[in-house]
Amino acid sequence: MPLTLTRDQIATAMGVNVDTVTRRLKGVPRSRDGSTYLLAAVLPRAKPDHLPALFAAATDDSALFVGSGPVTMAIASILDASLTPEARHRYQRVRAAMVSGLTYSRGGAAYLPLIESLQQKVLLHSEILRHVALGTPCQIEFAAFAPAFCLVNGAYEPAEVAA
Question: What is the pLDDT of residue 142?
Fold first, then answer.
């Protein structure tokens, strides 16, 4: 999984105690072992002024795979719905760059039937999430990134989730 945080890291970044974090994040999915949260799942419940501190505290595993299944899609959908207008504008540019990157890649057209779910999932990638939420410059070359991201993340998406 990409950017993750422990309750202690979240508490420190938000300037609250761990019990407050536990209460605020009730119902937010955790990692399999229950020790960490995906930053993407925490952001919709965070105040805008906490975002830089949350990103700074997060651990990035630099993985291309962002997860699969209904929980991953729900996290992406909730995060998408919570974006500010400025963040939504950046996200729309990322979505367009994904399609463009696939269009000009060899074999990229094979992923176009899954493009909607892949465009939602790309929001969970650490570099994309930083760019969209914080407005940091996006250093991704989509001609290379889009096909690789789709290969890794599209293969794990069941048809009933992607539809």
Answer: 95
